[in-house]
Design a protein that fits this description.
about 190 residues, mainly alpha, elongated
Length: about 190
């Protein structure tokens, strides 16, 4: 099932047959942690999308940042890893003063922020849409004129459809976050940038 998908389709296919096995426990745990926390927003009575709180998403991205940088530093040493992440291969040395700061900024500083922002924004936006259509539709049904009540009913139909779409998004966000982590680990292990 889902374990096999993470193990084979993410870890083995992206990290590679030689190194993937030691990262499977982390990636599987990451996938299920995100998925279960995302599903909290769809369970009646709980309806709390954990990752719609920025602190949760950034904490998880911070952990991911530590993991993939530690993997790279362990394999290449600190300076070797820093060189692999900041000096693009095949580029003339004349371009280095321009590219090294951009690569450092992109690979070391921005990567965890974009990882967290993607998860946070999708969970927050989905939950806000559900709240908007549910409460707006109810308000129009209860307080609207005869012409407005059908719009309220349409809003409720959209609320139900968006709720099902949100289930798909919750799964996809867990998958994408785990997939990107595997890609970052693979990049940290690679011998060339």
């Amino acid at each position: 099932g889902a374990y096999g998908m993470v193990r084979n389709s993410i870890a083995r296919d992206i990290i590679g047959g030689h190194d993937f096995a030691r990262y499977v426990p982390y990636l599987v745990t990451l996938f299920f942690f995100i998925l279960v926390n995302n599903l909290f927003s769809s369970i009646p009575g709980i309806q709390f999308p954990t990752f719609s709180r920025a602190s949760m998403a950034y904490a998880l991205a911070g952990l991911s940042w530590v993991v993939y940088n530690a993997v790279g530093i362990k394999k290449h040493g600190f300076l070797g890893y820093l060189k692999l992440q900041t000096v693009p291969s095949g580029v003339s040395k004349a371009m280095w003063p321009l590219l090294i700061p951009l690569e450092f900024f992109s690979n070391i500083l921005v990567r965890p922020a974009t990882l967290a922002l993607r998860l946070f924004a999708n969970m927050l936006a989905g939950h806000l849409l559900i709240i908007l259509f549910a409460t707006g539709g109810l308000y129009m049904i209860e307080n609207g004129s005869l012409l407005v009540k059908p719009v309220g009913l349409l809003a409720w139909v959209l609320f139900i459809l968006i709720s099902f779409l949100e289930l798909l998004v919750q799964f996809l966000q867990a998958y994408v976050f785990t997939l990107l982590n595997a890609m970052y680990i693979s990049g940290s292990l690679a011998d060339e940038h």
